[in-house]
């Protein structure tokens, strides 16, 4: 591994028990909404901002439940490892909308996971929290 990419990511779950995943522009795989911190941002501030920017879901910082820190091979940066501070966000009655950096978003049920191309961090660590 030649580098580490630090991110914050959210496992967003709706009232029907579906998990939201996004596919960033130019990427082949889906992942949880999230991204890299701006200078001076905490992991929580990062995830609140990134979820709003990528999905249009504006949630209060108090709505995010910390899940821990996870490491995995990065999906979009060759020879890098991603280290993610992950959070759970339960939402009701929201319309998620893709933004400029998001090519596609999907709401997944647990049975959809095995047939959906997911980033290693999502598949191996985060998506399971949607149904835990």
Automatic annotation (TrEMBL):
This protein's UniProt keywords: Hydrolase
Lineage top rank: taxon: Bacteria
Ranges for domain Nudix hydrolase: 3-131
Gene3D superfamilies named among the record's database cross-references: Nucleoside Triphosphate Pyrophosphohydrolase (3.90.79.10)
Cofactor: Mg(2+)
Keyword flag DNA repair: no
InterPro entries, sorted: NUDIX_hydrolase-like_dom_sf (IPR015797), NUDIX_hydrolase_CS (IPR020084), NUDIX_hydrolase_dom (IPR000086)
Pfam families: NUDIX
Signal found in the keyword field: no
Protein name: NUDIX domain-containing protein
Native source species: Microbacterium sediminicola
């Amino acid at each position: 591994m030649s580098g580490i990419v630090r991110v914050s990511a959210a496992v967003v779950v709706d009232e029907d028990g579906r998990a939201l995943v996004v596919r960033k522009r130019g990427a082949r795989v889906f992942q949880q909404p999230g991204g890299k911190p701006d200078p001076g941002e905490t992991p929580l501030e990062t995830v609140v901002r990134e979820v709003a920017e990528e999905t249009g879901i504006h949630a209060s910082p108090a709505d995010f439940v910390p899940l821990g820190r996870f490491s995995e091979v990065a999906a979009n940066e060759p020879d890098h490892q991603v280290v993610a501070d992950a959070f759970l966000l339960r939402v009701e009655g929201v319309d998620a909308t893709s933004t400029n950096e998001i090519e596609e978003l999907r709401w997944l049920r647990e049975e959809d996971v095995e047939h959906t191309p997911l980033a290693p961090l999502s598949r191996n660590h985060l998506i399971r929290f949607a149904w835990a």
